[in-house]
Design brief:
Strands 1, 2, 3, 8 and 9 form a five-stranded parallel β-sheet that branches. This protein is 51% helix and 10% strand. It has 18 helices and ten strands. The chain folds into two domains: 369 residues, Alpha-Beta Barrel (7-stranded beta/alpha barrel), CATH 3.20.110.10; 112 residues, Up-down Bundle (immunoglobulin/albumin-binding domain-like). The chain has 505 residues and is an alpha/beta fold. The chain is globular, with a radius of gyration of 23 Å. Helix 3 packs antiparallel against helix 4 and helix 14 crosses helix 17.
Length: 505
């Protein structure tokens, strides 16, 4: 470690809310299939090439169980294949429409055709059985460190401790079933933390987790044990992370990059570059790949310079090499920021050339990037770095409904005598989990598909209430029928066994 400038750990968090069979472009599952095509396929391709070069501990990858369920789901796999084929056809359609227009638009159409053709070939060759078989060799060979999280992505500080424990253990079990390895680390949903949660983490076998930098007062140079536990927390270095993506700025806003929000609606393609922050969509210039490539190189160099400078400052301050943790949603790279995958690969190749130890969270512990004990405050990575996004006034109705649902579920558990598995109880717990997802509050607070989020929370809450009522009334035959209907309609986590919720095992 003394020969390096310091360590750099990139953490990617792969997560989309459960989007059950709601159609493709321009609504519903478009989110999932765009991210699949533009983020997950390129990321795995890059990691596989790094593996072939003999590189290990490239990055830490969090895959939430709710996303893993979708990427392994037979319905979603068929629909993703259809979406990729449709992308190819849309590119051909655009080429026909633009054949007598700006040559730059014709090149956009040709580039989209080539990209969709490659994606189709990659999907058909490697992905037809889901994400888990693709991910497993990368985990087994230590190309990536896989971290997990609780089922259905709840904001854990607002959960009853019994439910928090069950959801976490069930999420870790789900990951182990899919990939064959139980994660030793987690990216807690929204980095939500309440004092004492480390005790539950230790009991579940979690050895490390991520928090946002302000929870450590910006002192993110080393992993630290939390409270009296042996569980380590890593802090996101915002000074570095925000070079890429911050609440106000970041590389993806450069004028040369593809504009995410400007569509050609007949084809669904995005043919424009950002051009300028105040430029109206109809006035934006066509995308130019050469200009974007120049910006990728410029921003990769700038980011690496920033990391190196930060590590030098940390070494001077602490008298030994420190660690920079940069953490992002995986979907930023490709889905939100078209050029993100190219930038990411360039950064991961440049950093070792500058003497930086590129590693994972687990690798950082092995390398000794550790400090002393810390007592963490209640925190998250949302606005204000507190809980306001998930328990603020705008979502008080969701918070109240979630608390009532939890009380009712625990009351139902107390009246249940587990023996053999009960498919009705399993489905009721599943609906409760989905109703308690943190995504709904986030979408409402940020006014991003707020009506959709409220509707989804209510739908799952109502389904739980219906099943719970049938169980309590003794209407067993109807309860079994209804649970089967819901499972067929959109049921992830088909293997969910709710018995440990009652037994505490």
């Amino acid at each position: 470690m003394s020969e390096t400038t310091g360590g750099f750990a990139l953490v990617l968090h792969s997560h989309l809310p459960w989007l059950p069979h709601h159609g493709t472009w321009p609504v519903g599952e478009e989110w999932l299939y765009q991210a699949w095509a533009h983020s997950y396929l390129p990321l795995v391709d890059m990691l596989r090439r790094f593996a072939e070069e003999g590189r290990r501990d490239v990055l830490t990858l969090g895959v939430t169980p709710v996303l893993a369920a979708q990427l392994d789901d037979p319905y979603a796999l068929r629909a993703a294949h259809d979406w990729l084929g449709d992308w190819n056809l849309r590119a051909q359609h655009a080429a026909t429409r633009w054949q007598h227009r700006d040559p730059l638009l014709r090149e956009v159409a040709a580039s989209e055709f080539r990209a969709s053709d490659r994606a189709l070939a990659e999907f058909e060759a490697r992905w037809r059985h889901g994400f888990s078989p693709v991910l497993r060799p990368l985990v087994d060979d230590r190309v990536v460190e896989l971290i997990g999280g609780p089922l259905a992505h709840p904001f854990q500080p607002l959960l009853d401790p019994a439910l928090r424990e069950f959801f976490l253990r069930a999420g870790l079990d789900d990951t182990q079933t899919r990939v064959g390895a139980r994660p030793a680390g987690i990216w807690a949903p929204e980095c939500g933390y309440a004092p004492g949660m480390e005790t539950g983490y230790a009991a579940a076998g979690v050895q490390r987790f991520l928090v946002d930098g302000p929870a450590l007062h910006g002192d993110t140079a080393f992993a630290r044990t939390v409270g009296d536990s042996d569980v380590y927390c890593f802090g996101r270095d915002l000074e570095v992370t925000y070079r890429v993506w911050s609440p106000k700025a970041g590389y993806p806003g450069d004028a040369a990059y593809r504009d995410f929000h400007t569509y050609d609606h007949p084809s669904g393609l995005k043919p424009s570059r950002v051009t300028g922050r105040q430029v109206a969509p109809q006035d934006k210039r066509p995308y130019e790949a050469a200009l974007a490539a120049e910006a990728v190189e410029r921003h990769a160099v700038d980011f690496v310079d920033t990391v190196v400078e930060r590590l030098r400052d940390l070494k001077d301050k602490h008298g030994r090499p420190g660690l920079v943790v940069a953490a992002y949603d995986t979907e930023l790279f490709g889905h939100w920021w078209h050029e993100g995958p190219a930038w990411l690969e360039r950064v991961l190749r440049l950093l070792p050339e500058r003497g930086v130890d590129v590693t994972t969270l687990g690798g950082a512990l092995e390398a000794g990037y550790t400090g002393g004990r810390v007592d963490l405050p209640a925190s998250s990575w949302g606005s204000g770095k507190d809980w306001r996004v998930w328990d603020g006034e705008q979502v008080s109705d969701l918070v109240h409904a979630g608390a009532e649902l939890q009380r009712d579920l625990l009351d139902l558990v107390r009246g249940w005598r587990p023996g053999t598995r009960d498919p009705v109880f399993d489905q009721a717990v599943r609906e409760a989990m989905l109703a308690l997802s943190s995504d709904w509050a986030f979408m409402v607070t940020k006014d991003s598909a707020a009506d959709y989020a409220r509707r989804r929370a209510k739908v799952h809450g109502d389904r739980y209430a219906e099943l719970a009522s049938l169980l309590r009334s003794g209407a067993r035959h109807r309860a079994v029928e209804r649970a089967a209907e819901l499972r067929r309609e959109d049921g992830p986590f088909g293997g969910l066994d709710a018995r440990p919720l009652a037994t505490g095992e």
